[in-house]
Amino acid sequence: MKNKKVAAFLSLLFPGFGHLYIGKYIDAIVFVAGAGVLWYAFFLRGYYLMMSANPRYYLVLVALIFVYLFSIFDAYRKTK
Predict the structure, then answer these.
(1) Residue 15 region, left (φ>0) first, then alpha (ψ -120 to 50), else beta?
(2) Which segments cross the bilayer (predicted)?
């Protein structure tokens, strides 16, 4: 039996890690890939978007926060 708090904490570290812990491998791949793309957009392209006062910067930031929070909630909810 897996611990819900451990799954949530691992998802807090990086989205998808909690899903790996509970054995939901497809969900883990989706969350890791989604968060990876958003991290790429935020850090490698974020400086350009921020300097040009582009609203897409904030869209990427909100999407990243949403993926983190949903990953934590989903891993907690799916832990048995």
Answers:
(1) beta
(2) 28-50, 57-76
Residue 8 has pLDDT above 80, yes or no: yes
Residue-averaged pLDDT of the chain: 90
Q: 29-33, 44-48, 73-77: which range is least confident on average? A: 44-48
Q: For the chain, what is the domain count?
A: 1
Domain that holds residue 74: 4-78
Residue 33 has pLDDT above 80, yes or no: yes
Distances (CA, A) of 10 to 1, 49, 52: 16, 30, 35
